[in-house]
Amino acid sequence: MAATLFASHYSGTVHTLTLDGSSLSISNTIEACGGMPSWLTYDAPGKTLYCSDETWIFGNGSISSIAVADDGSLTETANAPTIGGDVANVLYGGDDGRSYIAIAHYQTSTVSTFALPLSADAPALQSFTYAMDEPGPNRYRQDAPHPHEVLLDPTGAFLLAPDLGLDQIHMWAIDAATGNLTECAPVATEPGIGPRHGVFWTAGAAADAATTLFVANELGNSVTAYDVAYAARGCPALAARQTLSTFPGGGAAPSGAKVGEIRAAGAFLYASNRADRSFDPDDSVATFALSDAGAMAFVGLSSAHGSYPRTFAVNAAGDMLAIGDQTSSEVVVVARDAETGRLGDVVARVPVGEPGTPEAEDGLSAVVWAE
């Protein structure tokens, strides 16, 4: 049975992809999501894509809603202006858990929220803008606060945002009825480590049982595991427990390498390494095995089958992983062994748009499964 994916390209396009056996093809393309589509979230029950536009220098960014028809065709239904520099979004709140959307704005040091459904003139519900007195240890990359993602905790009651510039993890308590966020105390990370993206992982059946937050550190080329402790009242506490390199033997990263995305699937964790050329000229994806307590053990590197794996996603069945290689601008689907966690051969691949320029904001920007 064919599977559907969605991909975005920094040139201003959003695509529907069809995976049928060993064939991956583009089945629909629209110009949408402003000038720099950067992130996709798929709302399966609502058959809607939410796309963030990273534009910030030559105008505002935007957040778009895109309706997905049964045949995979796409129609942009709303585009609301934002403060700009949008790099990630997540749905939260309401009775259905998808009545509001939060956005991380990297270049403008802000996290904002909007009520759904979007309208063209929709104002932000809330905005949280951060500042710093002086640059961080990495003066070039940590010149200002840079929230890089927003993610929802397993209980649906809290939002978090890793801030690469501040070396902090911002946290908010959610009022599900109104969508309003109340700030919790931020969590400090190791100085200079540059937290980028995160993923929650829960070992037990209960949402708050043995919960671990894994954070991909872009500047540290590492992953940190945080124990998550929920209180009867108030915000959860995060305690750093373990940090491992995304390279074999805990070794240093190749010059210029940067951790990208992080995902968990079953008892395994994956983090992409951009510009490491471990499979020259291709970059890599690191695999970690997770114990019942959430302790990480490095398993190995697999090829990203392209350059600059900005994004990747595991399908619901757990037997495939779709890699979005930004600079080579290609979606590559590889096999995944759900028992061992190991990534296998290429199932299918397809170029999406024009290739990008190394270290530039162009090329392929996001890929998600239609699940």
UniProtKB/TrEMBL annotation:
InterPro entries assigned: Cycloisomerase_2, Lactonase_7-beta_prop, N2O_reductase_N, WD40/YVTN_repeat-like_dom_sf
Domain of life: Eukaryota
Gene Ontology molecular function terms on file: 6-phosphogluconolactonase activity
Signal sequence residues: none
Stored Pfam families: Lactonase
Parts of the chain that traverse the membrane: none
Family of this protein: Belongs to the cycloisomerase 2 family.
Protein name: Lactonase, 7-bladed beta-propeller-domain-containing protein
Native source organism of the sequence: Lineolata rhizophorae
